[in-house]
Amino acid sequence: MFRLRKEEMKKEGVVPDIQTMAEDIIEQAIRARDLGDTKKYMELKTQAEKMAQNVHFGQVVTLEQVKKIMDIAYPIARLSCVCRRRSRGFKDDENFFCMGIGVGMYKWERWPESYRGGVHFMTPEEAKAWLEQVNEAGLVHTFWVFGTPYIGGICNCEYPACIGIRNRLDYGISMLVKGEYVALLDRDMCTGCGLCVERCQFRAINIERTMLKAQINPFRCFGCGLCEKKCKHNAIKLVERESLAGLAQEW
Fold first, then answer.
1. In this predicted structure, which of 27-31, 131-135, 144-148 has the lowest mean pLDDT?
2. What are all long-range contacts of 32-37, with beta carbons under 8 Å and residues at least 24 apart?
3. Among 21, 101, 110, 161, which residue's Cβ finds the most Cβ atoms within 10 Å?
4. Is residue 169 part of a domain?
5. Which residues of 85-97 are buried (b: 16+ CB within 10 A; e: fewer)?
6. Mean pLDDT across the stretch 149-173?
7. Residue 165 lies in a domain
8. Boundary (domain end) residue, out of 55, 75, 98
9. Does 228 map to a domain?
10. CB–CB of 178/244 below 8 Å?
């Protein structure tokens, strides 16, 4: 559907915005990668990431961080998820997983493709309670700028439905950067139950079968905190990324 709409825009002579152009370049980069054209892939990847930094990129945040955003954002509204619509064909009335914040929510009808199905306004307390529910369900929280540096949305998604997560993990395109934290494991406290592995959306945790202990790869960790929230034995804690010399620049 998205590709068809882009073709319609070309026929109608509509000049695409920067975000649409970046998405088009990402598609070209992925195609070049699939065809084995590494040079072209790297050129297009760099171009897409540079454009994204200027208009639309995101970062992983923990439940505590996103709840703090709810305390200072106004208004707050739930809206349908573009990623799930594109990648999974979700109907709008079953797809209210994203959140819009800021005065743009009062003008949501100006972007009918982005806000199909309307918006559901929420109080900060209602928003935080709902975020706790989706966190318990295992969804990753990310915030996104819509016109840097203005935060305009909160996504609550998962791999592979989330286009931002999938572009980063599968194609190395960094429209989504890692969070401010890294999960570290206390092996003495770990029982090897595997709940953390089920929660991780970033392929950062596995069970070491020889020792029956979890193992966290800190270079793959995005700091979402989903594993830490579910660990029944307090074997996982989050530490600030910049406090770890080897990871301070791993975004």
1. 144-148
2. 33/171
3. 101
4. yes
5. beeeebeeeebbb
6. 93
7. yes
8. 55
9. yes
10. no
Judge whether residue 5 has pLDDT over 60. no
Q: Give the percent of the chain with pLDDT over 70.
A: 92
Cα 16 from Cα 6, distance rounded (Å): 8
CB 157 within 8 A of CB 84: yes
The residue among 134, 156, 173 that closes a domain is 173
At a CB cut-off of 8 Å and minimum separation 6, what does 75 contact?
101, 102, 103, 105, 106, 121
Q: How far apart are CA 44 and CA 54, in angstroms?
A: 16
Give the residue carrying structure tokens 């270079």.
Answer: 219
pLDDT tops 60 at residue 16? no
Per the structure, how many domains does the chain have? 3
pTM: 0.88
Give the torsion sign (CA, 167, 173, 178, 182).
Answer: positive
Residue 9 is predicted with a pLDDT of: 43
State whether 197 and 208 are in the same domain: yes
Same domain, 81 and 149: yes
Answer yes or no: do 159 and 75 share one domain.
yes
Q: Tokens 């709810």 label which residue?
A: 70
Grouping H, G, I as helix, E, B as strand and the rest as coil, residue 108 is helix
Give the structural domain span for 77.
58-173
